[in-house]
Design goal:
With 304 residues, this protein is α/β, with parallel strands linked by helices. The chain has 9 helices and 14 strands. The strands form 4 sheets. Strands 3-2-1-4-7 form a 5-stranded mixed beta sheet, sandwiched between helices. A 5-stranded mixed beta sheet has the order 10-9-8-13-14. Strands 5-6 form a two-stranded antiparallel ribbon. It catalyses: N-acetyl-D-glucosamine + ATP = N-acetyl-D-glucosamine 6-phosphate + ADP + H(+).
Length: 304
């Protein structure tokens, strides 16, 4: 039995996994962001609730493990940021610990139990507040030892002009320290940023999408530019990885007409031609972080 955790800046959610088809969510507790001892006790408390001793624990975290140092980069939870968290938790809890990025866990969940079932190479894309991704090949997460594979949201790649007719796009500053990243335009905040640039209007992403779906001219222009900007780097990612399915998660994945537009644009720009949807809505709609972490933990336990 594995206990998986989805660690967010607001809440920690747990789950019990006995097999790939037997993953049961547990409760959720507030995340202690500034107190490592309290963080450990929260995990210990959830483990105790099960009344069983697990074979190990697996964590999905909105952060990245450096594959060289095994230190976790997780700025939104200061008490675990820059720790060798796996080793620290193993010492505290006396259990094997596996840690993975939340986008990687999403990709793993989709490859194992979601839209990626039956596909050899699955690229899971996150279009939420920002942009993320994870890559699974032959049922194995590429980032099993940590690392940055799948992070298509970062790098100075955004086109300097987009849309029909083309309009100039600034190289927006990104939180990663670079300029012109997909993350600056591809998520919900990026969509709002584009609308402000194009029309000098401050609107929430939900309102922009609602107006677009009703045919409003300015919102339609914003979506045209958005799709043009996001489709090219996603197409390049697919060409490089050879992915044959791209499940999409995050808030914008709920807008199926937007995914259809993005899918059409991406398929027109890749080398391999598909006569079926390639960029699709994810199927693991509830707790993909828990599911992905559980699958990784179960695989690690089986290999031990």
């Amino acid at each position: 039995m594995i206990i998986s955790f989805d660690i967010g800046g607001t809440a920690i959610k747990g789950g019990i996994a006995r097999s790939e088809t037997d993953i049961v969510p547990l409760g959720r507790r507030p995340t202690p962001r500034d107190d490592f001892a309290a963080f450990v006790e929260t995990l210990r408390g959830i483990i105790a609730e099960t009344g069983e001793q697990p074979n190990g624990i697996a964590l999905s975290i909105a952060g990245v493990v450096d594959p060289d140092t095994q230190r976790l980069i997780c700025a939104n939870i200061p008490c675990i940021h820059e720790r060798t968290l796996g080793a620290d938790l193993e010492a505290e809890l006396g259990l094997p610990v596996l840690i993975a990025n939340d986008a990687d866990c999403f990709a793993m969940a989709e490859a194992g139990l979601g839209a990626g079932r039956g596909h050899r190479i699955v690229f899971g894309a996150i279009l939420g507040t920002g942009v993320g991704g994870g890559l699974v090949a032959d049922g194995r997460l590429v980032n099993e030892a940590g690392g940055f594979a799948g992070e298509w949201g970062h790098g100075p790649i955004i086109a300097s002009a987009a849309g029909d007719p083309p309009v100039a796009i600034p190289a927006y500053a990104c939180g990663c320290g670079q300029k012109g990243c997909v993350d600056t335009v591809g998520g919900a905040r990026g969509l709002e940023r584009l609308h402000k640039t194009l029309h000098d209007l401050d609107l929430a992403s939900e309102e922009i999408i609602a107006q677009w779906r009703h045919g409003e001219q300015k919102a339609t222009r914003t979506i045209d530019v958005y799709v043009d900007l996001v489709a090219s780097p996603l197409a390049l990612t697919i060409n490089i990885t050879g992915a044959t399915i791209v499940p999409v998660g995050g808030g914008l994945s709920n807008v199926e007409p937007l995914l259809a537009e993005l899918d059409h644009a991406v398929r027109a720009r890749i080398l391999r031609k598909f006569d079926r949807p390639l960029v699709v809505r994810s199927e693991c709609r509830i707790e993909p972080g828990l599911i992905g972490a559980a699958l990784l933990g179960l695989k690690a336990e089986a290999a031990a």
